[in-house]
């Protein structure tokens, strides 16, 4: 039976072939940086200069990168599939949008947005963010990237929960299944009766929970999977 409501979770692997590093693969970001230093509120309080340097460099890489065939195939799926397609991405890059996807939830925030840690005001990030830069709304020297660090609550969880409870197909693409709550989405979708598929380079931590698995580079597996859904 053809699905009607598809939820797709993407992770760093979908952008790997665009030249943006993953976190946990060999040579990934967490082999270069300690996540406690750059991806926690405590790390930011300790050394905001280091954290801004980390995100400024990633913003520059993201601006220089281009969407790949996997991003393009997912945008095509949203445009051509007769049912509902929602992308829930853990990625903070904007490559899904630049490929043409419109129904995108950034559960871990966005590299191109800034957040005031004092008043929660949000605005478009400048290419370079500086430690202690004033918030344009309240003037507090509390500008930070609008991203979700460990110990913080991911965005739009209520909406995601509703989508998972209603979907009939759930796919996870390019994610290691190590970070919660995203790693738990496959279990939620299964409880709702959805079919589940994993498309990653290698089996993830939660591979065993999926009905089917396709392992290989996203630029090959995702276009083929989309072709099959649209056939
Ligand atoms: C390819 C490929 C190619 C490569 N083609 N594939 C103990 C138990 C359970 C949970 C916890 C616990 N202790 C603490 C927690 C909670 C914690 C957590 O999960 N910790 C774990 C480490 C254990 N989570 C949190 O704190 C979250 N908040 C939270 O839980 O709030 C409370 C809550 C409770 C219940 C409901 C709701 C809320 C917040 C997590 C924030 C994560 N933030 C980061 C950094 C910020 C954004 C950024 O800088 O980019 O988000 S960490 C980092 O990991 C980033 C990513 O979005 C995230 C996931 O990584 P991802 O995408 O999976 O990348 P990789 O590198 O891990 O994997 C890449 C995959 O691609 C691999 O599988 C490769 O094989 C594959 N691949 N090339 C296809 N070409």
Overall number of strands:
9
Q: What class would the helix/strand composition place it in?
A: alpha/beta
Strand content: 15-25%
Mean pLDDT value: 97
Ligands present: ligand BJW
CATH class of the largest domain: Alpha Beta
Our Rg estimate from Cα atoms comes to 18 Å
Please give the count of helices: 10
Q: What's the CATH H-level homologous superfamily of the largest domain?
A: TPP-binding domain
Per the CATH scheme, the topology name of the largest domain is Rossmann fold
Main beta sheet: strand number and arrangement?
A: 6 strands, parallel
Report the uncertain regions. Answer: none
Helix content: 25-40%
Count of individual domains: 2
Question: Largest beta sheet: what is the strand line-up?
Answer: 3-2-1-7-8-9
Kindly summarize this structure in a few lines:
Helix content is 35%, strand content 20%. By secondary structure, the protein is of the alpha/beta class.
What do you see in this structure?
- The protein has helices at 13-16, 29-32, 35-38, 41-46, 48-64, 69-80, 95-99, 157-166, 185-191, 218-230, and strands at residues 5-10, 84-89, 104-106, 109-116, 122-124, 143-147, 169-173, 195-200, 212-215.
- It has ten helices and nine strands.
- Strand 2 (84-89), helix 7 and strand 3 (104-106) form a beta-alpha-beta unit.
- The chain has two domains: 1-20 and 67-108 and 154-231, 3-Layer(aba) Sandwich (Rossmann fold), CATH 3.40.50; 22-64 and 112-147, 2-Layer Sandwich (SIR2/SIRT2 'Small Domain'), CATH 3.30.1600.
- The structure holds ligand BJW.
- Residues 11-13, 16-17, 22-25, 28, 39, 90, 92, 108, 147-154, 157, 174-176, 178-181, 200-202, 204, 217-218 line the site of ligand BJW.
- Ligand BJW binds next to helix 1.
């Amino acid at each position: 039976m053809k699905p009607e409501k598809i939820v797709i979770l993407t992770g760093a692997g979908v952008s790997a072939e665009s030249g943006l590093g993953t976190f946990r693969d060999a040579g990934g970001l967490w082999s270069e940086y300690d996540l406690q230093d750059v991806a926690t509120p405590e790390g930011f309080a300790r050394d905001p200069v280091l954290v801004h340097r980390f995100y400024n460099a990633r913003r520059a890489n993201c601006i220089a990168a281009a969407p790949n065939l996997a991003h393009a195939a997912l945008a095509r799926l949203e445009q051509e599939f007769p049912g509902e397609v929602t992308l829930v991405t853990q990625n903070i890059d904007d490559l899904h949008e630049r490929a043409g996807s419109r129904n995108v939830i950034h559960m871990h925030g966005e590299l191109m947005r800034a957040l005031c840690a004092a008043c929660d005001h949000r605005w478009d990030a400048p290419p370079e963010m500086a430690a202690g830069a004033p918030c344009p709304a309240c003037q507090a020297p509390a500008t930070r990237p609008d991203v979700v660090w460990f110990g913080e609550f991911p965005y739009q969880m209520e909406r995601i929960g509703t989508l998972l409870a209603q979907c009939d197909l759930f796919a996870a693409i390019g994610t290691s299944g190590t970070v919660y709550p995203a790693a738990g989405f496959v279990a939620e979708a299964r409880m709702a009766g959805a079919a589940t598929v994993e498309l990653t380079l290698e089996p993830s931590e939660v591979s065993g929970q999926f009905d089917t698995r396709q392992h290989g580079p996203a630029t090959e597996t995702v276009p083929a999977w989309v072709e099959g859904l649209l056939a």
